[in-house]
């Protein structure tokens, strides 16, 4: 080694010794343990928030499932209850025709006409009792108070023996299916 290299090496060693002798400056800031504790608390708070959100989501999901189940049950109940609505509307025409047949004047002294008349009457009674078993009931009776939800007023005219808004004439019976109007009664109302 040359003298110059020796001198550079000595200077470097002296500088290292000086650096080692200088006191190490303390790290300004928090203790690493305190930082770790703060971080743990922060993570616990986040975990608690996440758990609350999950619990809320779970409750909302359960409520939505219950609502869907309830709606489905109501829809099925309505489907069962009102499945016969279209059929009932169609059968009402037959009932009307049988009632018209019984309302026409006939010579009941003739045995064949009387037997036919009795047969139509029995058929009408049986048909009415059959539809009644399935929840179809007639509305619109003379003397009843007019109800716009059940009756359709064709005309209003003063009539003796009837109060205002009382049904005086039933032109066509109305019918309900399990409480729902499937055909309103066409009536005349006293004024």
From TrEMBL:
Q: From the record, give the transmembrane residue ranges.
A: none
- Where is it chiefly localized? cytoplasm
- Keyword annotations for this protein? Chaperone, Coiled coil, Cytoplasm, Stress response
Q: Which residues form a coiled coil?
A: 1-71
Record-linked Pfam families:
GrpE
Q: Which GO terms describe its cellular component?
A: cytosol
Q: Give the domain of life.
A: Bacteria
State where the protein is found: Cytoplasm
- Asked whether the UniProt record includes Chaperone among its keywords, one would answer yes
Recall the GO molecular function terms of this protein's record: adenyl-nucleotide exchange factor activity; protein homodimerization activity; protein-folding chaperone binding; unfolded protein binding
Coiled coil recorded as keyword = yes
User: Which GO BP terms apply?
Assistant: protein folding
Subunit-structure text: Homodimer.
Instruction: Please give the NCBIfam families that the UniProt record associates with this protein.
Output: PRK14140.1 (NF010738), PRK14150.1 (NF010748)
| Family, per entry | Belongs to the GrpE family.
**Functional summary from the UniProt entry:** Participates actively in the response to hyperosmotic and heat shock by preventing the aggregation of stress-denatured proteins, in association with DnaK and GrpE. It is the nucleotide exchange factor for DnaK and may function as a thermosensor. Unfolded proteins bind initially to DnaJ; upon interaction with the DnaJ-bound protein, DnaK hydrolyzes its bound ATP, resulting in the formation of a stable complex. GrpE releases ADP from DnaK; ATP binding to DnaK triggers the release of the substrate protein, thus completing the reaction cycle.
PANTHER family noted in UniProt: GRPE PROTEIN (PTHR21237), GRPE PROTEIN HOMOLOG, MITOCHONDRIAL (PTHR21237:SF23)
What is the recorded name of this protein?
Protein GrpE
Question: Which gene carries the instructions for this protein?
Answer: grpE
């Amino acid at each position: 080694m040359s003298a110059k290299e020796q001198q550079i090496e000595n200077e470097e060693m002296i500088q290292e010794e000086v650096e080692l002798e200088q006191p190490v400056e303390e790290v300004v800031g928090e203790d690493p343990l305190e930082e770790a504790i703060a971080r743990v608390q922060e993570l616990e708070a986040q975990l608690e928030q996440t758990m609350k959100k999950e619990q809320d989501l779970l409750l909302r999901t359960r409520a939505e499932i219950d609502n869907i189940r309830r709606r489905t049950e109501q829809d099925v109940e309505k489907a069962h209850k009102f499945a016969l609505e279209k059929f009932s509307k169609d059968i009402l025409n037959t009932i009307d025709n049988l009632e018209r047949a019984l309302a026409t004047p006939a010579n009941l002294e003739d045995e064949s006409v009387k037997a036919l008349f009795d047969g139509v009457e029995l058929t009408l009674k049986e048909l009415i009792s059959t539809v009644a078993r399935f929840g179809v009931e007639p509305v619109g009776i003379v003397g009843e108070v007019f109800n716009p939800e059940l009756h359709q007023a064709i005309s209003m005219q003063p009539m003796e023996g009837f109060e205002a808004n009382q049904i005086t004439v039933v032109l066509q019976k109305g019918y309900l299916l399990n409480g729902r109007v499937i055909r309103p009664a066409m009536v005349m109302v006293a004024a």
